[in-house]
Write a structure and sequence with these properties.
Layout (H helix, E strand, L loop, with lengths): L8 E4 L7 H13 L4 E4 L12
Parallel strand pairs: 1-2
Length: 52
C-alpha cells in the first residue's frame, strides 16, 4: 500500500550547520504544495540512512 496522494515527505541530510535560509525555503515549498513533512538528518535517497 502506497502513501496517500496528499502526503509530501521531504528528506534532507542536514549535516552539521544547516543553513536556516534553505530550511525556510523548503518549508515554503512544502506549504505551496499543500503541506507535507520535512525530515532532517536522513539521506534523500533509499535506503534512507541517518546522517546526524
Amino acid at each position: 500500500m502506497g502513501r496517500p496522494e496528499n502526503e509530501h515527505p521531504e528528506f534532507k541530510e542536514a549535516q552539521g550547520n544547516f543553513d536556516h535560509e534553505k530550511l525556510f525555503s523548503y518549508c515554503v515549498a512544502l506549504a505551496n504544495e499543500g503541506g507535507g513533512n520535512l525530515v532532517l538528518g536522513v539521506t534523500d535517497r533509499q535506503p534512507r540512512l541517518c546522517t546526524g
